Amino acid sequence: MQLPLPSPGLGAMWSLLPLLLFLSSSLLAATTIAYDLWYTECASNTNYTRGGAFQANLDALLSSLPAAAAASYGFADNFTGAAPDQAYGLAQCRGDVNASTCLACLDGAARHMAATCPGQKDAMLIYDECLLRHSNASFLGAADASVRFCAWNPQNATQPEEFRTRLGALMGNLTARAAFASPRMFAAGKAAVSPFANVYGMAQCTRDLADDDCNRCLDGVVAFIPNCCDGKQGGRVIARSCSIRFEVYSFYDALGAQEAMSPAAAPVPGGGPTNGSGHSVDGNTGSSSHTVRTALLVAIPVAVALLLLVAVFLFLCRRNRQLHKHVQVASSVHEDEEDMRSSESLLYDLSTLRAATDNFSEENKLGEGGFGPVYKGTLQDGQDIAVKRLSATSQQGQVEMKNEVVLLAKLQHRNLVRLLGCCTEEHERLLVYEFLTNNSLDKIIFARRHELGWGLRQRIIEGIGRGLLYLHEDSRLTIIHRDLKASNILLDADMNPKISDFGLAKLFSIDSSVGNTSRIAGTYGYMAPEYALHGIFSAKSDVFSYGVLVLEIVTGRRNSYTHASGPSEDLLTFVWTHWSRGSVQPLLEGCPDEGLRAQEVLRCIHVALLCVQEDPHDRPSMASVVVMLNSRSITLPAPAAPAYAVPGRAVTASENPPRRMSLGRQGPMAAAREPSINEASVSELHPR
């Protein structure tokens, strides 16, 4: 029975925590695939023996399917071996992608299938651009219309009634075209919702199906839209044998889609499995009546599609598209016992974590922040872990935990801390991470700074930069961290930096660049001025924090001071004063071997000053920062005077923020103290 998915929101996301962790296991295994992995299915009750006949057959099958599909208009099915160790497989790419993209997606899927579903005879990976499926039993030609996955755009559609009407008509048309008129069982198109807005849609079946089976499968997933994505600007519904998607922007390649729907795009024969040479086993090629029906159904849609193609190009030339990633995700409507077992494999028992941390003893406590304490633990197999424990009195921390799980379940990079799992028993809220032996950067850079030579500091600076670049531009999501500081940089055994603490991070749509909040949260001294004063944050806010952090790493000085030892200038004032006067020697004294590589040190300071300029438009992107740090041939622009803050005593959440200072052309000039907005929350200055 098909059940409606939970409505979007933090409550629904929290209820899907085991599922999100299940999805994260697939993402963590697929670290080199550059394509969006939307659905993973591993049948854990069909394990095979490693090194046996089935694995040999499966390896041979998976090694041949990607190239065969790329060479055959994006589709191939095959089987290898003899019973009872036969391996059946199917590979298919989205109808509008080109051969090179198809091959790259399927190659990546084939390489990571074993890691994602280890030792399992029946498995399926579905990416945005391709899908790969294998089994020990023949599934080829058998339609499976049960909905396995649903995702939606969080934005509501304007003119919802008109939108539903137009969407229904569009998807009905695309269903018929994909099933009966498209050689690749793929159709894409659009419908006008208003003179200035369209809805775009796509429908596709696996090409081993008969036409009528494809039509029934697509009818089923289209009928599921009200349960999943009603009133939303976009959504997708995926079954094993077919899928649909709709958006308010063009998400498919128009030329590729037109080619896929053209009669000239000859399909690989479908309706049954193929042998090793690609010939149909049962030889079912259809009847003459089917040919006539296909010809009639193709003629009119092709003519209309050509007109639509011209309109699409004209429209795209003048439209500033606003893309929206699906950030609310629900999967596996049929959550059978098999899926639950897979999800629960990433959940830790509370008794296990209590034993690992000696019941959260003070001796195992690594630090404490706004979220709560962090403890070191050792599991029974000897693996060291770090356990973050939500404080029972922290209301903000529970929201932060949900946020961190949602984000880290989708992110994987060598310079981001790795989430291992969680525990939610007995009112406890625990996150389990990889344990990093060298703790946080602030414990080394300030207390033991002479242990860090310049080469190591430079590697740490560049590693943090690569991690931020991944968050801003290279991940499937666009993430603004909002709390980048030395205590949130952890170091592994090889002193590789890893960005941690995503409790305050914000998710952006791909083309969004600026956000606004009435709740300021973060750490003063690292906050960009436009965020601290007005709640405006963007990727350039993280760039500002990165610039402050780089100056701390280079000089070994904290960015802020208390009045315990009398008044003193803040870090940005100190650096800018010496830089602008040309007296740079005091800036180099924080590194024990700075004299040997002074030019490299000064170049890092130069880049950092570019990052902390007051106007966010004057700050470089992280992509530019990474290039500037790694290329000595690029001439850097002269930095303007930075923005900076002079904190007084420690600021609490209910107090006003520190005074904002601006180093203008005429020197420092203090602005009036402004009140905080909605009781700004400030992170502690020790590791979380």
From TrEMBL:
InterPro entries: GNK2, GNK2_sf, Kinase-like_dom_sf, Prot_kinase_dom, Ser-Thr/Tyr_kinase_cat_dom, Ser/Thr_kinase_AS. It is found in: Membrane. The chain crosses the membrane at residues 295-316. Residues 265-286, 650-688 are annotated as: Disordered. It comes from Zea mays. Residues 36-139, 145-251 form the Gnk2-homologous domain. Residues 276-286 have a biased composition (Polar residues). Keywords: ATP-binding, Glycoprotein, Kinase, Membrane, Nucleotide-binding, Phosphoprotein, Receptor, Repeat, Serine/threonine-protein kinase, Signal, Transferase, Transmembrane, Transmembrane helix. One of its GO terms (molecular function) is ATP binding. This is Cysteine-rich receptor-like protein kinase 25. The keyword Lipid metabolism does not apply. Residues 360-636 form the Protein kinase domain. PANTHER family: CYSTEINE-RICH RECEPTOR-LIKE PROTEIN KINASE 5, RECEPTOR-LIKE SERINE/THREONINE-PROTEIN KINASE SD1-8. It is a single-pass membrane protein.
